[in-house]
Amino acid sequence: ICSIMVVGSVKGWFDDETKEKGLSVSEKTGIAMVERSGIAYEVSEEDVVREADKLYTKIASTLKLGDADRVRISLDANAEILITKFGEAFSFEVLHGEAFVDARGKTNVTAISSNTKATLDGAVVSVSTQAGSSMVYVYEGSISLTRAEETVTADAGQVVTVVINSDKMKLADFKVNSLSEDQITNLIKCGMDETSCFSKTNLEKVRTD
After folding, report:
1. Measured on CA atoms in the order 17, 108, 110, 156, is the torsion positive or negative?
2. From the first residue on, what is the mean pLDDT of each consecutive set of 10 residues in the chain (209 residues)?
3. How far is the C-alpha of 172 from the C-alpha of 18, rounded, in Å?
4. Is 50 helix (H, G, I), strand (E, B) or coil?
């Protein structure tokens, strides 16, 4: 019984209040894991995410967190994030791979990648952390990024590249045909509107060309 209580506590079986306030798993394909209090286990839909949770996907798997009332995060295959703050303010770190974030209508949302802090309030972005560099694509809204003593602002249609062994950030425009299939899929699913840098028609055209 003691071991069941320990496992249940780690997995949040008894956290009714947390379930009301937390960020839950809304969709999952393949194998996606959470590491909590030193214990790793496979997540299921409707599981609730906690502060200090590390979530990761494996090959050919995806994971979606959140709902219409909260920030929504989508992880593609081979991605890993760490929830660093949960409450009135929400922050997470992209440790590896790419996270797609829909923070429309939300405030106090922050992502961290390669020691770069990105304030995402009201924006739709993807944050990618790979060996040696990070990239943040902005699809809707405007974000600010801070690294060392430098701060830049990126608007919809712009991408910020960070080289890990440098304090400099590079800001550039990007075109719809430079997006990956995963990025296009996430954008179509999230329901882009007239304030977005690309329409659904633009995105679907890339697939057919």
Report:
1. positive
2. 41 45 86 95 93 95 86 95 90 96 94 94 95 93 93 96 87 95 92 82 86
3. 41
4. coil
